[in-house]
Recover the amino acids of this structure.
């Protein structure tokens, strides 16, 4: 009996130790619905359970048995690439915030919402029949390059340590943040079937697709909001090649796709990420 207990305990300890020794970056698929933090906690819980930790609580940071974070928050209603740092890889996540990102956004003309996406309440309705594809493409040129952008009120930005979106939901009055410089590397109209349109966007850090679509609607003498949003690339990680879906959230799959950070503590470079299994 004692022999059986020792043989089962050793692999669990070994697995947890192996998990805690992992350092690097990898990408997971975030589905629509949960917040980025919720998705990270689900991932953490799955890995700790696999390592044999009883009743893991990934939200308890004081007794954190697994150091993990994500780079670049995706809205609850958005899906796509979410880059995760584990161990010393968390120190490389700032590069994910500042680096290039790609999105596919489906917008809807004629309706504005308080959140600037489909999760909010409609605040304005305007005609859009006057807008042609050529009008739309012409306006896109003014939103390409280095531009100024006002972040949405409903966002992960903070005031006095609390997210603006949380303050708004609590009924607090929140003032818009001042316009700030952002960069749009590429912006193309893929599909135009009013009231719906589809944009391909490549942008830098701090950029909000919801603000872009809202501003586009106004520039076209109408209004608009984001109906669907998918991040297809963040840094070196792409939706097609690198993301791990929920059924692949295991140590084995992470080790296969991990972009190790050998000099993370001193700000060293990471290697190119391997492709995920499909």
């Amino acid at each position: 009996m004692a022999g059986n207990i020792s043989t089962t305990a050793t692999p669990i300890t070994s697995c947890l130790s192996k998990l805690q020794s992992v350092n690097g970056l990898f990408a997971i698929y975030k589905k629509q619905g949960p917040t980025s933090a919720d998705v990270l906690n689900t991932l953490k819980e799955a890995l700790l359970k696999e390592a044999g930790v009883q009743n893991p609580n990934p939200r308890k940071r004081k007794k954190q048995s697994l150091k993990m974070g994500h780079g670049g928050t995706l809205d609850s209603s958005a899906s796509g690439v979410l880059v995760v740092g584990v161990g010393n890889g968390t120190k490389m996540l700032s590069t994910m915030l500042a680096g290039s990102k790609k999105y596919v956004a489906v917008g809807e003309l004629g309706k504005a919402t308080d959140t600037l996406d489909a999760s909010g309440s409609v605040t304005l309705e305007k005609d859009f029949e006057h807008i042609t594809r050529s009008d739309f493409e012409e306006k896109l040129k003014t939103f390409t390059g280095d531009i100024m952008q006002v972040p949405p009120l409903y966002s992960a930005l903070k005031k006095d340590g609390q997210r603006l979106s949380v303050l708004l939901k609590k009924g607090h009055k929140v003032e818009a943040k001042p316009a700030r410089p952002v960069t749009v590397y590429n912006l193309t109209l893929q599909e135009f079937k009013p009231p719906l349109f589809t944009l391909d966007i490549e942008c830098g850090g701090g950029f909000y697709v919801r603000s872009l679509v809202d501003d586009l609607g106004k520039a076209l003498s109408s209004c608009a909001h984001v109906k669907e949003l998918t991040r297809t690339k963040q840094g070196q990680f792409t939706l097609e090649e690198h993301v791990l879906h929920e059924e692949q959230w295991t140590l084995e799959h992470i080790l296969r796709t991990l972009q190790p950070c050998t000099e993370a503590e001193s700000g060293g470079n990471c290697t190119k990420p391997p492709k995920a299994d499909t």
Remarks:
- The two ends are 42 Å apart (CA to CA).
- The first helix runs from residue 2 to 20.
- Confidence is low (pLDDT under 50) at residues 1-11.
